[in-house]
Amino acid sequence: MSHQPALATPHISLTPGESIFVLTGAGISAESGIRTFRDANGLWEEHRVEDVATPEGFAADPALVWRFYGQRRAQALTVQPNPAHRALAALEARLGPERFFLCTQNVDHLHEAGGSTEVLHMHGELFRTRCSDPRCPKLPFHDERHDFPTLPRCECGALQRPHIVWFGEIPFEMHRIKRRLQASHVFVTIGSSGAVYPAAGFVREMLYRRENGERVRTVYVGLERPENADAFDEVRLGPAGVLLPGLFAVEG
Ligand code: BV8
């Protein structure tokens, strides 16, 4: 396993027929001005993210949780995608949906704003709201409200909640994620500390495939070594907005 970022080959090359699974975290939006969790932790009303981003936190103080998400909506409305988002959109356009799969842990809209057309938000989306009652038939809807003088309620009478996967809840579309993990040749994580599961465990699925004799490659791209660095073939250190443009070389 080469961890020599300075000696890493210049490109991540994709030969004809090879497919890629890209997992992104808060680090890819950092250069757009969106706080990562590592620096957001404890900044939100002196609460840890794990405290306000849980069903228990919402049940205990829904007004605090709506303030937390309202602040993030307001901030996200002021930012633009950065060259890293655009580089992934260009790669998607070059490879097409069969060979390129983008799964993000981020709840912001910057991948779409940067031109990505198929984005799997495994932890939900900041600009969508849903009814907190799982029995209510009303579907999640686009919502840019960020100031809540009174708690928002569904027509059914139940509180509305952010359409976000909180700690202790099951991420969305895990079956589709697993299928693409099983089918991809190259796995790249961009800007994630590797602290949150199951996302931080995806790279190990690739290692299991290699132990079964499959030829797979894994690369981490980010500012610092992630907690799961040892599971990657390569760790490339640097800002995503600088490293991503020109990182991929598609052959044929
Ligand atoms: C689940 C929505 C069961 C909220 C989020 C004990 C041990 C292990 C696991 C657990 C445990 N106890 C509980 C668990 C499970 C728990 C978990 O992992 N907890 C952690 C805290 C220990 N996980 C869950 O509860 C998940 N659900 O497990 O259900 C299950 C699962 C599968 C199947 C069946 C049952 C649900 C987790 C989802 C929680 N919701 N987001 C919101 O956004 O408000 S997670 C949230 O935190 C983000 O979405 C993101 O995923 C995560 C933060 O991670 P990162 O994205 O990595 O961000 P971070 O700030 O940490 O790192 C940024 C990185 O970027 C850094 O490395 C930095 O160096 C780098 N960077 C900075 N600038 C740049 C850069 N890189 C490049 N360029 C730059 N410019």
Structure ligands: ligand BV8
Which structural class matches the secondary elements? Answer: alpha/beta
CATH level 1 name of the largest domain: Alpha Beta
How many domains, in number, for the residues? 2
Spatially, the strands of the biggest sheet line up as 4-3-2-8-9-10
- The fraction of residues in strands falls at 15-25%
Keywords for this structure?
globular, single chain, alpha/beta, Rossmann fold, 252 residues, three-stranded antiparallel sheet, SIR2/SIRT2 'Small Domain', binds ligand BV8, six-stranded parallel sheet, 11 strands
Describe this structure in words.
- It is a single chain.
- The strands form 3 sheets. The chain has a 6-stranded parallel β-sheet, sandwiched between helices. Strands 6-5-7 form a 3-stranded antiparallel β-sheet, covered by helices on one side.
- It has 2 domains: 12-33 and 81-123 and 169-250, Rossmann fold (3-Layer(aba) Sandwich); 43-78 and 125-164, SIR2/SIRT2 'Small Domain' (2-Layer Sandwich).
- The chain starts with 11 loop residues before the first strand and ends with a strand.
- The protein has helices spanning 27-30, 37-40, 49-52, 55-60, 62-76, 83-95, 110-113, 174-183, 202-211, 240-243, and strands at 12-14, 20-24, 100-104, 120-121, 124-131, 141-142, 160-164, 186-190, 217-222, 234-237, 248-250.
- It is built from 10 helices and 11 strands.
- It has 252 residues and is α/β, with parallel strands linked by helices.
- The protein is globular.
- The mean pLDDT is 94.
- Helix content is 29%, strand content 19%.
- The protein binds ligand BV8.
- Ligand BV8 binds next to helix 1 and helix 2.
